[in-house]
UniProtKB/TrEMBL annotation:
Record field: catalytic activity: beta-D-ribosylnicotinate + ATP = nicotinate beta-D-ribonucleotide + ADP + H(+); beta-nicotinamide D-riboside + ATP = beta-nicotinamide D-ribonucleotide + ADP + H(+)
Organism: Rhabdornis inornatus
GO cellular component annotations of the record: cytosol
Annotated keywords: ATP-binding, Kinase, Magnesium, Metal-binding, Nucleotide-binding, Pyridine nucleotide biosynthesis, Transferase
Gene giving rise to this polypeptide: Nmrk1
Single Gene Ontology MF annotation: ATP binding
Classification via Gene3D superfamilies: P-loop containing nucleotide triphosphate hydrolases
InterPro entries in alphabetical order: P-loop_NTPase (IPR027417)
Pathway participation: Cofactor biosynthesis; NAD(+) biosynthesis
Similarity-based family: Belongs to the uridine kinase family. NRK subfamily.
Database matches in Pfam families: AAA_18 (PF13238)
Tagged with keyword Kinase: yes
Protein name as annotated: NRK1 kinase
Length: 200
């Protein structure tokens, strides 16, 4: 049995969840873990002097739990309830390969996760497009006026620049303004190449 752990990180509203779901439908024995499932309760998330809830930082997340969930999956992917349907467009000898897609906005800035990735993707968006998309989404709790400019975007830039400064980190940056079909085609082909390497 072999496992492949794929990171799908990047900007808020960059299309991570959509891409992960589409990949899951196309890849054999594929499962998803979403970082959004590991937010601390609202009462435990810090508030800054402007009254902004600081959700876009590592401290807002139960990262230890997330690492444990990924490691548990890696130890026994078959017991995770992952579907072992006949893979489409892939070979029979991939039946003993399991793929985990971990999607979230802060995947590569947390040291305990860094040894787990087989491939890392990072979706980017320009400021205006990100702000436009964010304004169409409903969050709990809702974004307060100025929240995007005052917290969300600055934190994205901070963590992205940390990532870019880390020369040892191999990350494939993806343009989130491209069509979903284009992004899906690129990442799917790339993962199939990784699967073929595992088989060799």
């Amino acid at each position: 049995m072999k496992v492949l752990v794929i990171g799908l990180g990047g900007v808020t509203n960059g299309g991570k969840t959509t891409l992960a779901e589409k990949l899951k439908n196309m890849l054999p024995n594929c499962d998803i873990i979403s970082q959004d499932d590991f937010f601390k309760p609202e009462s435990e998330v810090e508030t800054d002097e402007r009254g902004f809830k600081l959700y876009d930082v590592l401290d807002a997340l139960c990262m230890d739990e997330m690492v444990a969930s990924i490691r548990n999956w890696m130890e026994s992917p078959a017991s995770s309830g992952v579907m072992t349907e006949e893979p489409r467009n892939t070979c029979d000898n991939l039946k003993n390969v399991y793929i985990l897609i971990v999607e979230g906005f802060l995947l590569y800035n947390y040291e305990p996760l860094n040894g787990l990735w087989n491939r890392r993707y990072f979706l980017t968006l320009p400021y205006e497009e990100c702000k436009r998309r964010r304004s169409t989404r409903v969050y709990q709790p809702a974004d307060t006026p100025g929240y995007f400019d005052g917290h969300v975007w600055p934190m994205y830039l901070k963590y992205k620049s940390e990532l870019e400064e880390n020369a040892s980190m191999q990350v494939d940056y993806l343009d989130g303004t491209k069509s979903q079909e284009e992004l899906l085609s690129y990442v799917y082909s790339d993962i199939i190449q990784e699967l073929n390497k595992l088989r060799e």
